């Protein structure tokens, strides 16, 4: 597959404003950015979006897309995937959850739409209960049907801070008895906050939680098979796919290869496609090498993208020589200068630092020019 416009970089938009920044990397100036392209994640919603996803103009079937990043993947267990790179790879390509984000051309923002659920959920009057209805015909990569009980088990997993210490804690913060329930591994499988009735899942809250549809887009709010198949140590190396792609080879922190999931049905998915045959992702790649490959107008430069920021030293060249392949966008993370004022006690020195800091340049480099 040859990209219609060889892409140097994908816009750094967040899966959610709630998502954690960064990735697993020894480079303190690096963040694990997202796979999803376009403008910032906003408050837009399309609760009535129905499958299949609309075709993308100019898209072609087949080929391999290569992805390079300086950051590693700290964990690929959906329950613990909270960094933007891990969560976006899973949500965009591999695992599905109650809701999802897609790019909207009209608003140029990521908008929230249904995913496994038929809509964005139905709350009670005070937002202390949310009910979701599971779509028909959804299967795992091995052909096993996805059930509402699988989603309930995935939700129960999201409480277990001992087993999944790096995962988001919104279930603990807002769901019924979230401060007491410890999940199926540290605690027990019995939890009264999730009730399954056929293909319906009702989630009970400890306090009003009107933002549940947004939490529903995280990988943690998706189905996970109960039993030995989802043992945390093994599942982090190969989560069962419900999306268009599934794991083929995975070396933690180093590489991930995804191939087509034969049991993904586009007629159940209102937001995803399966154009590419294979995704070949390499991590812990030096930034200079990433830029060198990406700036080429031939060879691997035609089929390789990165979701990292381009080096400042290469940015002008990219704008001059490859402006049609450079995607600019906002960043979900804030970068700032934090002097240690315990040591810098002279008020005049503090003022000098404040006046000297290039606020506009930093804003441009860290936000509008994040690529």
Question: Care to describe what's here?
Answer:
A hairpin with a 4-residue loop joins strand 3 and strand 4 (about 110-115). Mean pLDDT is about 85; it is low at about 1-20, about 25-40 and about 365-370. The chain has a five-stranded mixed β-sheet, covered by helices on one side. The chain has a four-stranded antiparallel β-sheet with strand order 5-6-8-7, covered by helices on one side. With about 375 residues, the protein is of the alpha/beta class. It has one domain (about 40-325): Periplasmic binding protein-like II (D-Maltodextrin-Binding Protein, domain 2, 3-Layer(aba) Sandwich). Helices cover about 20% and strands about 15% of the residues. The chain has ten helices and twelve strands. The protein is globular and about 60 Å long. The chain has helices at about 85-95, 150-155, 170-175, 185, 210-215, 230-235, 285-295, 310-320, 345-355, 360-370, and strands at about 40-45, 65-70, 100-105, 110-115, 120-125, 130-135, 195, 200-205, 245-250, 255-260, 280, 305.
From the coordinates shown, what is the CATH architecture?
A: 3-Layer(aba) Sandwich
Please outline the major beta sheet: 5 strands, mixed
Structural class: alpha/beta
- CATH topology annotation: D-Maltodextrin-Binding Protein, domain 2
CATH class: Alpha Beta
How many domains in all? 1
Count of DSSP E strands?
12
Q: How big a fraction of the residues is strand?
A: 15-25%
Number of helices: 10
The helix fraction, in percent, is 10-25%
* Average predicted confidence as pLDDT: 84
CATH superfamily: Periplasmic binding protein-like II
Order of strands, main sheet, comes to 9-10-11-2-12
């Amino acid at each position: 597959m040859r990209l219609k416009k060889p892409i140097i970089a994908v816009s750094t938009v967040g899966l959610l404003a709630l998502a954690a920044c960064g990735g697993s990397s020894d480079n303190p100036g690096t963040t694990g950015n997202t796979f999803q392209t376009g403008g910032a994640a906003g408050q837009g919603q399309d609760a009535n979006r129905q499958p299949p996803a609309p075709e993308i103009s100019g898209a072609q079937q087949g080929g391999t897309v290569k992805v390079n990043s300086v950051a590693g993947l700290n964990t690929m267990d959906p329950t613990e995937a909270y960094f933007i790179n891990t969560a976006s790879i899973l949500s965009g390509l591999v695992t599905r959850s109650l809701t999802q984000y897609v790019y909207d051309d009209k608003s140029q923002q990521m908008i929230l739409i249904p995913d496994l659920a038929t809509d964005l959920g139905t709350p009670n009057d005070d937002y202390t209960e949310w009910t979701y209805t599971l779509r028909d015909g959804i299967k795992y990569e091995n052909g096993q049907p996805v059930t509402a009980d699988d989603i309930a088990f995935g939700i129960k997993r999201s409480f277990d801070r001992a087993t999944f210490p790096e995962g988001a804690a919104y279930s603990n913060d807002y769901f019924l008895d979230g401060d007491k329930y410890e999940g199926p591994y540290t605690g027990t499988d019995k939890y009264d906050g999730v009730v399954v009735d056929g293909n319906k899942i009702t989630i009970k809250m400890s306090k009003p939680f009107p933002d549940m549809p947004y939490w529903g887009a995280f990988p943690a709010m998706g189905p996970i098979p109960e039993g030995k198949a989802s043992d945390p140590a093994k599942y982090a190396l190969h989560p069962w796919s419900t999306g268009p792609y599934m794991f083929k080879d995975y070396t933690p922190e180093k590489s991930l290869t995804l191939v087509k999931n034969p049991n993904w049905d586009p007629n159940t998915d209102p937001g995803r496609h399966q154009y590419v045959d294979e995704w070949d992702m390499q991590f812990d790649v030096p930034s200079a090498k990433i830029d060198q490959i990406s700036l080429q107008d031939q060879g691997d430069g035609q089929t390789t993208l990165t979701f990292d920021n381009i080096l400042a030293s290469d940015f002008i060249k990219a704008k001059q020589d490859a402006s049609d392949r450079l995607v600019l966008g906002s960043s979900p993370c804030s970068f700032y200068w934090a002097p240690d004022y315990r040591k810098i006690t002279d008020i005049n020195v503090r003022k000098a630092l404040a006046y000297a800091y290039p606020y506009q340049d930093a804003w441009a480099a860290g936000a509008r020019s994040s690529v």
